[in-house]
Predict the structure.
Amino acid sequence: MLRLLFAFAAIGFSLFLISCNTLSKEECVAADWRVIGESDGAAGYAPQDRFAAHAKSCERVKIVPDQTIWYQGYQVGLVRYCTPMSGLMHGQAGDGYSNVCPTETAPGFLRGYTLGNRQHSLQSDYMSREANIDDLSHKLKDAPDADRRDIRRRIDDLEDDLRRIRREQRDVQDELDNVSAEVQWFQQNPNAAPPVMPGY
């Protein structure tokens, strides 16, 4: 039995080590560092951390990544990442932001990211409160009379919170619509001065 536990522990540790590697041995050997850099930039990874992780992964096969070529690709990928719609998408997914966008594109990215992140937070908050209401409703069925009033009051408070969150979600949706309209206008008129959008 002890031997079996050690075997499982060894397998688990091996899987942990594999998961820490950003590239497999085969990927290190066949690496196109420009393509890898572009992919990393498009994903918004922090450049120093990501490149260091690649270098560590490829130490196993004695391959030193080409940082110059990787960074050239990274800059190309970063252009795709640092857009308002990309920011919106990453915010909605609840992804972190590593402060990688240059000063000229950071404001647009952050505007989309902040809105998307706010939407993500509201949705998470809403789902959490709905789950609490379900849980309290089940407890209410079996609760002694002395506890029912307190549970009912907590449910009422949560329902008030849900109504507030729904109002905030409508406001966020209006802001998201404005951002989408602004991005669409920019795509069609990339060299023109931006118009004053509603609400700004």
Remarks:
- Residues 2 and 131 are 41 Å apart (CA to CA).
- Confidence is low (pLDDT under 50) at residues 1-19.
